[in-house]
Amino acid sequence: MSFVDEAKFYVKGGDGGNGCVSFRREKYVPKGGPNGGDGGRGGSVYIRATKKIQSLIDFKYRSHFKAGRGGHGQGKDKHGAKGSSLVIEVPTGSVIKDVDSGQILVDLTDEGQEYLAAGGGKGGLGNTHFASGSNRTPRIATDGRPGAERWLKIELKLIADIGLVGLPNAGKSSLLSNLSAANPKIGDYPFTTLEPQLGILRDKYSNPYIIADIPGLIEDAHKGVGLGHSFLKHIERTSIILHVIDISEDDHRRNYLVLENELKKYKDGLSDRVKVIALNKTDLVDPDMVLEIEAEYRQSGIEAMSVSAWSGSGIADIRLKFIEIMEDLVQDTDAPSDVQN
Ligand SMILES: Nc1nc2c(ncn2[C@@H]2O[C@H](COP(=O)(O)OP(=O)(O)OP(=O)(O)O)[C@@H](O)[C@H]2O)c(=O)[nH]1
Ligand SMILES: [Mg+2]
């Protein structure tokens, strides 16, 4: 499932430097000609797409971006220095809009793609440009032009990283509310969740991972039973699937198989995604039994973690597990491009 993260920011190109009025001073030459240099052009602000950045979090800390102004011209035909340009790196996939008109200015789909967000102002002309036959000592120079400025809006479509699936009442929404700041509806009846819900889990660097909670699935959901299985499209592209099981239910082992079968029926690939099983509601089960159940799953090579969305036990471990998996995945996707470079 995707949702849009957005931020507003201000860009300003550097002002151009002013042209200079100056005359040559030479011994024995009473009236030297003009030698005022031109002002330098202001620097520009560019926006560049990069895969190194995945979120708009940087815009929380900085919303004003100004390029350097051009230097003023000086005597002896010295031109002002160019202002330094500025490049704002944003995640590939960002869309830049003009705040006032709402119009899309650019869709930064490609790695390294650049957009001129605010051009620098032209430098002013020094007085050498104004000399003529009738005016050999021009006292005119022009000022630099101001750099362009505007407010922009950046939007980034995010795809959920972690998808929660399970039978109705398993505790998916309860887990979402524990793992993120989201506040989904929780109820002791099936099909409390009718629409996908999103939450953001943050690691210690504030990197966001998006969790999607979807309505419960029941046996034969693929045939349209219950709410059907079309909600699975929202988690089709997540990196991790968290399968939530209520282990206080007598037939939790069967429930596990029922749900896995529904995942497979939706799409073969879904059942072999990185999967973590949350054995939920441990507070309702004898602790020795919890260990036994956990061991059973692990023996079959399944990553099973005991939690209680009610008491909060095991939540910290599950959060760490997600972050560990996500970091590994990011490193894996980074590796090939490092080799190419
Ligand atoms: N005792 C106990 N109750 C829990 C736990 N987790 C969830 N519950 C309860 O189980 C019920 C269902 O929780 P939800 O989070 O709404 O379950 P869900 O999987 O989102 O359900 P649907 O949206 O209907 O698919 C609620 O009454 C919760 O309070 C737990 O760890 N322990
Ligand atoms: Mg729910």
List the helices and strands and how they pair.
Layout: E1 2-12, E2 45-50, H1 58-61, E3 64-66, E4 86-91, E5 94-98, E6 104-108, E7 114-118, E8 149-159, E9 162-166, H2 172-179, E10 197-202, E11 208-213, E12 240-246, H3 252-266, E13 274-280, H4 287-299, E14 304-306, H5 315-340
Parallel strand pairs: 1-3, 2-4, 9-11, 9-12, 12-13, 13-14
Antiparallel strand pairs: 1-8, 2-7, 5-6, 5-8, 10-11
Describe the structure.
Helices cover 19% and strands 25% of the residues. It is of the alpha/beta class. The chain has two domains: 150 residues, Spo0b-associated Gtp-binding Protein, Chain: A (Distorted Sandwich); 177 residues, Rossmann fold (3-Layer(aba) Sandwich). The strands form three sheets. A six-stranded mixed beta sheet has the order 10-11-9-12-13-14, with helices on both faces. Strands 3-1-8-5-6 form a five-stranded mixed beta sheet, with no helix packed on it. The longest helix has 26 residues. The C terminus is likely disordered. Bound molecules: guanosine-5'-triphosphate and magnesium ion. Magnesium ion (MG) binds next to helix 2.
